[in-house]
Amino acid sequence: MKRRISRPGEFIKGIPIAVWLLALVAIPLLFTFIMSFYSSSGLVIDRTLTLKNYKLFFTDSLYARILFKSIRLALAISVLSIAAAFPLAYMVSFKVRRGRNLLFMLCIIPLWVSYLVRIIAWRTILGNRGVINSALMAMGLIKEPLTFFLYNQFAIAITLTYICIPFVFIPVYTALEKIPRNLLDAANDLGANELRTLFNVILPLGLPGLITGFIFSFIIALGDYIIPLQLGGTQGIMFGNLVWSQFGFAFNWPLGAALGFILFIIAVTILGLTSKFGSTEGGFLGE
Amino acid sequence: MKADNAIDLVNVTKKFDEVTAVSEFTVAIKKGEFFSLLGPSGCGKTTTLRMIAGLEVPTEGQILLEGGDVSSTPAYRRNVNTVFQDYALFPHMTVRKNIYFPLKMKKISLSAAQPRVKRVLRLVNMEGFGNRLPQQLSGGQRQRIALARSLVAEPAALLLDEPLGALDFKLRVAMQKVLKDIQRNVGITFIYVTHDQSEAMTMSDRIAVMKDGLAHQIATPDEIYNNPSTAFVASFIGDMNFVHGTVLDNDGKTCVLDVEGKKVTAKRAVDLNNGAAALVCIRTERVQVNSPRSVENRISAELSRIVYRGTDYEATCRIGRAELRAVVQAVAWDAALRVGDTVELAWNAEDVIVFPREEEKDVIKYSVEAV
Question: What is the ipTM of this complex?
Fold first, then answer.
């Protein structure tokens, strides 16, 4: 059934949302889009429309290379976040009987701590004199601190995964909570052990949550520039950093806008492709 | 515990923390039997079924399946299948995939399973629905698919947990017949949980009537109706009059009681001494109003209420402080009778059942006949 919004009451209710979206999403995006066709000479923005910025992106392989690296890392982070958050959500949803709400709160409590504080915390864990190295040296396993923990893609991946886990946990947990418990009884009754129930019933029915979690973590990881800056070292220039530096250092706002818009298009494409699977009520996976 | 039993329960007890859900349940269910667990909600009937299925582990006692102890076998390795109350069809699978599921779990290939899937679909009269999704089916259709899914792997017993509970009255009556026919055709043991006494009465070979985790009586429908073993069973099944009485003379075969100063004779063994307080029970449809037939018990009473119910009349009559209801076929009813008239109530001595007065607390007070 389609809901009609013909009545004036319904129409008025929609106005705040429309204003909100227009002011905070559509108009800034439109400005960015227009800006990406300007050009910059020194500190002055030349307002004649040009495709120069996009041409640069497609001719200088540096940009494509960094974009590819960023996508690859964001994918890895999404997979890692799901790998960490799914078992967690599975345990909290199916295995815990008492104190479930408390556990749920504990799982999302990192969201209450400032993002920057959590990044600094990971620096103290991974650093030369950090928690891991100190512990390993105290145990006598190593003499010199290991340096491969910090200032590379590994550090970015582990920290961003940590940041993303609650964002994956929440939609996955919600999806698992929605699975009627008698379906698990039925699967068990009809001959499926826990593992086969997981693959035949829980995963297909929890898929919308997994896809939402994937989208969240992928977009967070693809756009982030603070963690690469803080923990990435020389390897850590991601596409987000490129965009950010055009605005922050190089004062080449038009190029920044063009790169930002390219990132936006990629994110929207992925969102569109995956949400096609994410929103169905079931019936998309027969097995 | 013979091998020709489908299921044996031996002193099965289930406790949830300190609450006893099922207490020392012992029964032997024969192969091919239609066995019902009947009782009000919270009586432990579903818990018993879930223990047979393996979805709950008994605290004490043994469960045997075709003679073999399965007490500690997990549900997925037990050769019994359940039809759940709300069907529990997998919403992401088509009807065909749902029915194939138990065979898939037995590692039977889809092509090898195809004829069996087709056969059960035909059995439940749902051919041509194989490619539908559960949410595209009506309640009755889902119910039949759930039944087909549970039957396809040919289990040693089929467990049904109030399978018709969500259906409306007419569909339920129709499905009762379908279920009974299917049970006769396939010859599988059915264990059927219901709170609906008429459903249990019409379908079952034997019924276990349960209350508060205890099996009050395990017997055929006829036995349960005519010789209830406790006042609870007497009140839960059918429509029963309960009046207070005192034992005057009990010789072990015939028992004479005093009810409101009048003598009532019961022709059956009653385990009460002279002078004991008793609960006297007579089925409402066995009480005759102004009957010409000669029967042992005749008492005059005042008509206090007449209710016309289509096929019959329910006449409530007063004898002192006691009240007796008589249900009389509409064709046999004397239309001249009015409230306030004095009538003569009569019934056979065989129709009087006597329980100790202490059992009165177990009597279910309301009488629900609509379901």
Answer: 0.84
B92/A204 Cβ within 8 A? yes
Per-residue burial over B242-277, b if 16 or more Cβ lie within 10 Å, else e, is bbbbebeebeeeebbbbbbebebbbeeebebeeebe
The shortest C-alpha distance from B95 to chain A (Å) reads 11
Residue B160's Cβ-side half-sphere holds a number of Cα atoms within 13 Å equal to 32
Interface contact B133-A282, CB threshold 8 A: yes
Q: Which two tokens stand for residue B35?
A: 């066995």
Q: What is the pLDDT of residues B168-221, one digit of tens each?
A: 888 888 889 989 999 998 899 999 999 999 999 999 999 999 999 999 999 999
Domain B5-226 adopts which CATH fold? Rossmann fold (3.40.50)
State the CATH class of domain B239-362. Answer: mainly beta
Q: What confidence category does residue A196 fall into, taking pLDDT thresholds of 50, 70 and 90?
A: very high
CB contact under 8 A, A188 and B91: no
What class is the A46-278 domain? mainly alpha
User: SS3 for B99?
Assistant: helix
The pTM (predicted TM-score) of the whole model is: 0.82
CA nearest B229: which of B211, B247, B246?
B211
What is the tens place of the pLDDT at every residue in B73-104?
999 999 999 999 889 999 999 999 999 999 99
Out of B55, B77, B92, name the one closest to residue A282 (CB). Answer: B92
